[in-house]
Write a structure and sequence with these properties.
By secondary structure, the chain is an alpha/beta fold. The chain contains 12 helices and 19 strands.
């Protein structure tokens, strides 16, 4: 079997690793000249850790990560609204971990056979010819494959080429992501909620803390650090002072958040995975988790053999309810955190633990029957 993976982000590299473990040869192409590491830090919940175990990489990731034992939500004034011990939900599934995105991408990349990934090369179009799928590359070459896996992210050109114009939908939120020095004041996942604004801090090592901040798209302006500092100037400790102390020249990744609605993203010898298939708000912290799960499930089904159309249909059936659930809950979380502070305070203080368990318990279930 010959397999092409378009995209060398977390989804594409995970798929390559999963296929190699099943003895299936593949090649990966990435339009960028170097591994994409946007996002600064990454938080992996227990289901993502379990999927990394399926790739044989959990121990290596764990050694590079910071263990997260609590998830705490505060008001912008610093009052505790809810605190959850992560093990209460995830202990039978996997650990919750935080690390730099660059570290995770690096672990995935070095797990592959040398030469698997070609950077600076893009799959620009694809068409079915007989029993094979032909791909045209940005260097003018054409090659044939038994399967093409689209993993090129939220703005996938292959998605539009194969499934028709279907642009990702902006969800009205823009964000900043950056790394700062770990001052020792944050020992777990810590979010602070304000009026249409969220500030999040997660230690990713003894030396660094990942900061995520978002606001309404209409408030984002030019996305400068100065705008960020102004919007969060009223936030108390532990996160407010960190933003207030930022140097205007701080390296920051900025983005306008988008969603790709979960759907039947399979065609003749072609399938989409990761953000190309189901990008959503980061409110559920499941972007990487869903991508790695996609990779594990697809490789498992391919290894069992059978007609390709049946394999891809089984993949769709195995994943659609799960990714749809994540998107549904991400939308609900975005609505709650951007709504009335009085209502949010009551809900989180009275029902926060129950909501957390009900939201995430389905993700602890097995990926395949």
């Amino acid at each position: 079997m010959s397999v092409l993976i378009a995209g060398a982000g977390i989804a594409g590299l995970s798929a390559a690793r999963a296929l190699e473990m099943k003895g299936i040869e593949c090649e990966v192409v990435e339009r960028r000249e170097r591994p994409p590491t946007e996002g600064a830090g990454i938080f992996l919940l227990g289901n993502a850790a379990r999927a990394l175990g399926g790739l044989g990489l959990l121990d290596e990731v764990r050694s590079a990560a910071y263990p997260i034992a609590t998830q705490r939500i505060l008001s912008s004034s610093g009052s505790v609204l809810n605190e959850v011990a992560t093990a209460n939900v995830w202990k039978g599934c996997g650990p919750c971990l935080a690390l730099s995105r660059q570290s995770l991408v690096g672990i995935l990349q070095t797990s592959l056979k040398p030469g698997t990934v070609s950077y600076g090369l893009e799959a620009v179009s694809t068409a079915l010819r007989g029993e094979m799928r032909t791909v045209r590359f940005s260097d003018g070459r054409e090659e044939e494959y038994d399967l093409v896996i689209g993993a090129a992210g939220v703005n996938s050109s292959l998605r539009n080429a194969v499934f028709g114009p279907n642009p990702a939908r902006q969800i009205g939120i823009s964000c900043w992501r950056l790394l700062v020095r770990n001052n020792g004041e944050i020992d777990g996942w810590t979010a602070m909620l304000g009026n249409g604004r969220t500030l999040l801090g997660i230690p990713i090592s003894e030396r660094e803390t990942y900061i995520y901040a978002d606001c309404r798209l209409s408030d984002f302006g030019d996305g400068s650090v100065e705008v960020m500092k102004r919007l969060f100037s009223g936030f108390a400790a532990p996160l407010g002072p960190i933003v207030a102390a930022l140097d205007p020249a701080t390296a920051v990744h900025r983005a306008t958040l988008q969603e790709v609605a979960a759907s039947r993203w399979i065609a003749d010898r072609h399938v989409l995975i990761g953000d190309a298939a189901h990008a959503s708000s980061p409110s559920m912290a499941q972007g990487a988790g869903m991508a790695i799960e996609d990779a594990v499930v697809l490789a498992e089904l391919l290894s069992k053999g059978g007609p390709m159309d049946e394999i891809l249909q089984r993949f769709h059936q195995a994943r659609i309810d799960r990714v749809s659930w994540v998107q549904e809950k991400a939308r609900a979380r975005d609505k709650l955190r951007s709504g009335s502070s009085a209502v949010r305070t009551v809900i989180l203080r009275l029902f926060g633990d129950t909501l957390y368990r009900r939201t995430y318990e389905p993700l602890t279930r097995p990926l395949l029957p």
